[in-house]
Amino acid sequence: MEYILNQLINGICQGAIYALMAISYSVVAGVTGMVTFTHGEVMMIGAFSAFYVFQYAGSHLMLGIFGAFAASWILGMLVYKICYEHFFDAPRHISLICTVGFSMLVQNLAQIIFGANRKPVLNIIDNRVFKFGPVRISLIQVMILIIVVVLAALLTTYFNKTRAGMALRAVSQDKEAAYMVGISVKKTAMIGNCIGCGIGGVAGMLLSVYYQTCYATMGSTMSMKAFSACVLGGMTDVGFSAVGGMLIGIIENLGITFSSASFRDVFAFGFLILVLIIRPQGLVARKGARP
Asked: How many CB atoms lie under 10 A from the CB of residue 155?
């Protein structure tokens, strides 16, 4: 029972990272109206940016978060300019194919620049462990949960309390109506895409800190987990996408409790398939959603 409880704690922490990944993907999909295959590489760049910040500026977590957010924001701007801006009125598969090509380009450039080997991300947070009866939780897990909750709260406040955030919500709901009321759809969509990418970069950093490693091909798995969580949440609903990410993290860790860690992805994607068979629209209760 003690082992199961501790695996549940691990699942909640890992699920929180997946939730942040899903939130970032959901924001991008919501404001652009397009599925992206570059998001894994955006998160990978965030992880490597934080790695070099830690290497040259010391183990300062806030500097790492800023570096990951800034680098992923810049990459998000490039993704928007190359893959989205000129294809708003084109068939969606054109933009989709463009993101696939851009993803392969970034991944191969990362292998050339950063190398194919894994980079150790060590001693960023003191790995103290707190015991509460049979339950153990590390300081890394506590910090990750705090960061995810704070970022989610800031994003919610931005969307609901600021003029720019409400413009993003309008664009995600109906681009034509937003244009008719004077909102610059392309500029707003670019900002929303950059925000989503920036948050994705922070999620990539947290994953590298949690597993104490980063590597050039890590984006492939991350993008599939983020996409899966978004599908569970109805693609563009931020709240349900976060719930989807949390569930995937918990199911993964509870699944490997009774089997091998090599089956981690089997449980994650098997859960996704099962939910979609029972409920094709995902967890979201209504058609259409907004960030």
From this structure: 20
Q: Alpha-carbon distance 110 to 266, whole Å?
A: 27
User: Tokens standing for 2?
Assistant: 């003690």
Q: pLDDT at position 291, please?
A: 47
Contact yes or no for 199/25 (Cβ under 8 A): no
Q: 10-51 pLDDT, tens per residue?
A: 899 999 999 999 999 989 888 887 788 899 999 999 999 999
Residue pair 67/58 in contact by the 8 Å Cβ criterion: no
Residue 290's pLDDT band (boundaries 50, 70, 90)? very low
What is the C-alpha to C-alpha distance for residues 101 and 118, in angstroms, rounded to an integer?
24
Q: At what angle do helices 39-57 and 185-211 cross, to 10 degrees?
A: 60
Q: Of all helices (H) and strands (E), which one includes residue 142? A: helix 139-161
Instruction: Name every residue whose Cβ is closer than 8 Å to that of residue 276 and which is 6 or more positions away in sequence.
Output: 231, 232, 282
Residue corresponding to tokens 């942040």? 20
What's 82's DSSP letter? Answer: I
Q: How far apart are CA 86 and CA 235, in angstroms?
A: 23
Name which residue leads in pLDDT, 150 or 271: 150
Q: What are the structure tokens assigned to 241, written together?
A: 């996408």
- Whether the predicted pLDDT of 64 surpasses 60: yes
Where does residue 209 fall: left (phi above 0), alpha (psi -120 to 50 degrees), or beta otherwise? alpha
What is the pLDDT confidence band of residue 198, given thresholds at 50, 70 and 90?
very high
